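Q: Hi! First time doing this. I have a protein sequence and I read that you can turn it into a structure. Is that right? Here it is:
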Amino acid sequence: MFRINRDTKETAEIQLNTPVTSGDGLWLDGKTLYVSRNATGKIFPVVLNASYTQGTVGEGFGEGLKFNTTIAKAGQYLLALNSQLNLRPSATNPTPAPPSLPFTVSRISIP
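A: Yes, that's right. Below is the predicted 3D structure, encoded as structure tokens:
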């Protein structure tokens, strides 16, 4: 993960206690960045320091997510799109199972 200075356009890697891979949707709430990690089916909180240069990754949460992507906050909940993008054809899986219809949005309590 990288921090981009909007004025200078400089980038700096955010130093984390553990990698945050497969991140898709992001939601910044104060000093907590929520990362929707599609391949894990979870949302992970990252508590950032005052300068947004270091962070501590917390435990993932959210049950029943299906390759979750975009997230948004609604009150005390996060809304996550269940994209099921993992079910699209790829070089390693040219004929995947069809997605579960209709596509859904999950409401997840923020711990």
